[in-house]
Amino acid sequence: MVYFLGVDAGGSHCRSRLTDQNGRILGSAEIGAANARIGIANLWPLLMQVTELACQEAGLNKNDWSSVHAAFGIAGLSRPGLQRALEDMPSPFAAIRYTGDDEIANIGAHRGHDGAILILGTGSIAHIRIDGKSETLGGYGFPISDEASGAWLGLESIRHSLRAYDGRIQKTIFTERVIHHFSDDILGLVAWMDAATATDYALFAPWVIEAGIEGDPVAYSIIQKAVAYIENFIEVIFQKGVARCCLMGGLAAPFMPWLSNHISCKLSPSQGDALDGALILSGLKF
Amino acid sequence: MVYFLGVDAGGSHCRSRLTDQNGRILGSAEIGAANARIGIANLWPLLMQVTELACQEAGLNKNDWSSVHAAFGIAGLSRPGLQRALEDMPSPFAAIRYTGDDEIANIGAHRGHDGAILILGTGSIAHIRIDGKSETLGGYGFPISDEASGAWLGLESIRHSLRAYDGRIQKTIFTERVIHHFSDDILGLVAWMDAATATDYALFAPWVIEAGIEGDPVAYSIIQKAVAYIENFIEVIFQKGVARCCLMGGLAAPFMPWLSNHISCKLSPSQGDALDGALILSGLKF
C-alpha cells in the first residue's frame, strides 16, 4: 500500500488528512496553532502529533509511515533557516516536502494548475503560481501590511471610533458600539492596545461588515477603502499573467457582494482546500 | 526668598527650571525619560533628581526646598491612580502641583491665557484650555491614534513602500530608499516591525518631509493625508471656542509650509515653552 498525507500548519490551527492512492480519505486530525513562529523545536513534535492522529484513525502504526508520501504547508516557512532545518530532520516517511501554507492553498484551489489566490483572513496575502514558480503580494504582517484583512478592519474601526469620540468626525451607531465595547473607558482602550495582537483587532471585522450592511456611514467608508485595496490586489494579480484567481479566507464571502461586477466576474470558485493542495504536492493524483 | 520650580517630564526627556520670584533663571537640568509609564516608584526619584540638579546649580540645599513652589507636568498622568499616588507622596516643597505635560505646554504657549495647542511630535495630541478647564483630542497612542505624528508618518512610509515593492503602487525614489534602509530584506523588515515602537517608526518622518519637498509622489501623498488630519484637528479646535491655537512639537515647523493659507493664518506663535507653563502653574507671575 502507498499512502498520501497532507498537513496545513497555520497560525490558528494545524490540520492533517491521510488518503490511499485513490484519494479516499482514511484519517484526519486537527490540533491548535503550529506555525514557524514557535521555532522548529516546538513545531516538529506538533507536526508529528497531527500526523500520528490521522494515522491512528486510519489504523496505521509507525511501521506503515515508511509507505507515506507527505507534504507540509507551513505558515511563516520563509523565516530564515527554517526550511533547511526541517529538511535536516530525520524523516519517517517515504518522501517529504515542505512549502508555505499559502502555496498549498493555491495548489488546492486550482487542483495543481497555475493560478492565484487572495486570502482575506486575520491577515491578507496574495499567492501567485505560474509554471510552478511562486510569488506573494502583501502578507508582511500587521500593522505594516495586510490591508483589507480582519486585523486592518479592526484597527480602522478603532481609529475612526476615537476620531468620532473626539468630535473630529461624526459619531455613528457603529463608532458608539466600538467605544461601548470598551465600556466608554478610553484609558482602558489604550491599555488594551498595548497588548493587542492582530487576532484581537480582527474581532471587530464582523462588526464592520454588519454595520456596513446596515448603512452606517463610518463602517461603509472603511469597507469602501478595503474594497479599493482588494480590487487593486486582484488587478495586479491578473497583470502577472495568471488566468484564474480565487478569493479565500473567512472574509472572502463577506466581501464578495461589495466588489464591483467587473472585478468579481474575473474570480473563479475554489476547486479544493489547502489539504487538497498538500496532498497534490505529496504526489496524489486527483 | 521664594523660589519657583517647573518640571516637564516626558517620554524622551525630563527637564527642570528654577527661578526667583522675578522669573530670573537660577538653575536648570535635563535627564532622560521620566513619564507615567515607568510607575511611581521609578518616577518619583527621577523627579527629585532633576529638581536637585537645578537646585544645585542655583546653590540651594535641601533646607531651601521648603521655599520652593513647584509644578510638574507629566506625560501619561491620566493613568488611573497616578495623580492620587503623587499627591500622597511627602512633599519637600512649600507647594506642589501636578498636571499633564500637554497642559503645561498649553499654559506656556499662551502665558496662562485660554488657548489650544496641537503638538506634532513622535505622537500627536491637541490640548484645549478654556476657563482653566482642559480637554484633549487624539493622543491615545500608536497605532490606534496620533494621526499626522512622526510615528504615523513612519508607518505610512513603510506601508506604501511595501505596496510599491509588490508592484501594487508605483515605485518611487522614496519607496526604494525605505526598502534599501532594510537592505532590501523584507524578512528583516518584518522582524524589525515585531519589535518596533512609535519612536522607531518616527525615524522615517524627516525622510517623508524631505522627499515631499523633492516632489516624490508617494511622500507627497502621505504628507497631503497628514495635512488633511492636521487641518481637521485645527478646525475642530476652533469650533471648541478658543481664540488662539499654536502648532508645537518637532514636526510643527516642517508641516507649516504645507498647510493651506486659510488654516495657517489662524495659528498663533507660541509665547513660551512647557517649562514656562509649569512655572506659571507653580505661581510665578510673568
TrEMBL record, chains A, B:
Pfam assignment, any one: BcrAD_BadFG
Extent of the signal sequence: none
Transmembrane regions: none
Domain ATPase BadF/BadG/BcrA/BcrD type: 5-253
Superkingdom as given in the UniProt entry: Bacteria
Name of protein: ATPase BadF/BadG/BcrA/BcrD type
